[in-house]
Amino acid sequence: MSRMKIKQNDKVMIISGKDKTKIGKGLKIYHNKGKVLVEGLNKIKRHVKPNPYKQEQGGIKDAEAPLHISNVRVVCDACANPTKPGFKVTADGEKVRYCKKCEENF
Length: 106
Ligand SMILES: [Zn+2]
Description:
Blueprint: E1 11-14, E2 23-30, E3 35-38, E4 43-48, E5 59-64, E6 67-68, E7 72-75, E8 82-83, E9 86-89, E10 95-98
Zinc ion binds near residues 79 and 104.
């Protein structure tokens, strides 16, 4: 398994498909599948059965579908660019993620 460079609540930009260049928040990371669910993006229509226990009506609902991480880039907090993060070890032995564009940790 490749190392996941995206963390939950990261800002991510979609780089392919219908939501290309849009930015959203990473809601959920599926480590075993290498996928990420992005808030409000990559929506699909999903048929939902009525569920009286949850008082849900049936019908067609919009729901986010997970994207493969190769289709997204993390957006750097410091420079706001989509980036491929690098990792480095600090003097304290702590592993930190940094932006390869502006060199800031994020
Ligand atoms: Zn940056």
